[in-house]
Write a structure and sequence with these properties.
This protein has 127 residues and is α/β, with parallel strands linked by helices. It contains five helices and five strands.
């Protein structure tokens, strides 16, 4: 294997994002893992758009397993927040330097109803 092939595989692996959507009662939970950057943020946008069409009671985006959150990913979260009806709350699970720190530094933590755990996020959107 050439160095170029090895570098291409490393770049591809670094830009991996996995998204799983599930329901917890009437709440849609979008679990995200890996890297959310310019390359993978369209996946998150598509998942949020799909979740919104189902008219959930609320949406929780769980970033607990995200290892890198770029500004494009944060922009997708803000855009989703802005598109949701006022009656459909959104919460984001983020705890750690890769997710909560950038969201907090930019001032998005309060806007996105950031919580450190999934249980706390679910409580926040259902109470």
């Amino acid at each position: 294997m050439s160095q170029q092939d090895s570098d291409a595989r490393a770049t591809s692996a670094a830009n991996t994002c996995e998204i799983v959507e599930r329901r917890v009662g009437a709440v849609t939970v979008i679990e995200v893992s890996g890297t959310v950057d310019m390359i993978t943020s369209p996946q998150l946008e598509a998942a949020l758009t799909s979740a919104m069409t189902g008219a959930p009671q609320a949406i929780v985006v769980d970033l607990s397993a995200v290892t890198f959150l770029a500004s494009t990913g944060m922009g997708v979260l803000i855009a989703a927040h802005d598109k949701l009806p006022a009656t459909t709350p959104l919460a984001v699970v983020a705890d750690g330097p890769a997710t909560s720190r950038p969201l907090d530094l930019i001032g998005f933590a309060d806007v996105l109803n950031m919580r450190p755990t999934l249980d706390e996020a679910l409580s926040a959107v259902t109470s």
